[in-house]
Design brief:
single chain; 203 residues; alpha+beta; 3 domains; 3-stranded antiparallel beta sheet; 7 helices; disordered N terminus
Length: 203
């Protein structure tokens, strides 16, 4: 009798891998694929042997983890083994931090081929790198590189230069084509206090 468990077709049989022969809960999953794992051997009391897409063999003691989708790979692919970052990967993170988005940095690290990096992977690595660095790095983009920044760093410096010359924010906003509130926030240093290259503006 065939039953449906998640998206996999399984069959009841005469043996159970834990409880022995003629057990009502025995499920025959030989030859069925679960994620990256394909069951290649199933013996009573010995669990099931699976072959992962990466080429490694994995023994799962309880088939319920496969059938529920808890176990989808051997544990050594998709960064589950958490290999150490090498110099090339660290260089990508350090050189692009604050310039590219975290997702873009993760894609570049993934392209190196040693791991499938996610946003959390990059954030965790930056935290580890900063523990041993005097000059800390930040993933936050600044100045005109900020995704929602209005105006370039040059426009910001120009607004402040005009204000220093005695021109009021209302006139500056008309000259620059910006809103008065935005110009006021710039010239009073309520926003855009850092440029894209990391330079800090001071009053």
């Amino acid at each position: 009798m065939a039953i449906r468990t998640l998206k996999y077709d399984v069959k009841r049989g005469k043996e159970h891998h834990q409880f022995g022969r003629h057990h009502k809960n025995y499920v025959n999953i030989l030859g069925i694929r679960f994620g990256k794992l394909k069951v290649i051997e199933q013996k009573a009391g010995c669990g099931v042997k699976c072959l992962c897409d990466c080429g490694r063999e994995h023994i799962e003691s309880n088939t319920v983890y496969l059938r529920k989708g808890t176990r989808k790979s051997c544990g050594f692919c998709n960064n589950m083994a958490n290999p150490k970052f090498n110099r090339d990967e660290d260089a990508v993170i350090i050189n692009n931090a604050g310039i590219l988005s975290t997702k873009e940095i993760a894609d570049i690290v993934t392209a190196i081929g040693r791991r499938i990096a996610s946003i959390s992977t990059i954030k965790n690595r930056v935290a580890r790198i900063n523990k041993s660095r005097v000059e800390k790095i930040s993933l936050r983009r600044k100045g005109e590189l900020y995704p929602h920044a209005k105006g370039s760093d040059y426009d910001v410096e120009l607004c402040r230069s005009l204000y220093d010359e005695g021109i009021m924010p209302k006139e500056i906003s008309e000259k620059m084509g910006m809103t008065r509130s935005h110009v006021s926030a710039i010239v009073y240093y309520h926003s855009r206090t850092e440029s894209a290259n990391g330079f800090n503006f001071h009053i």
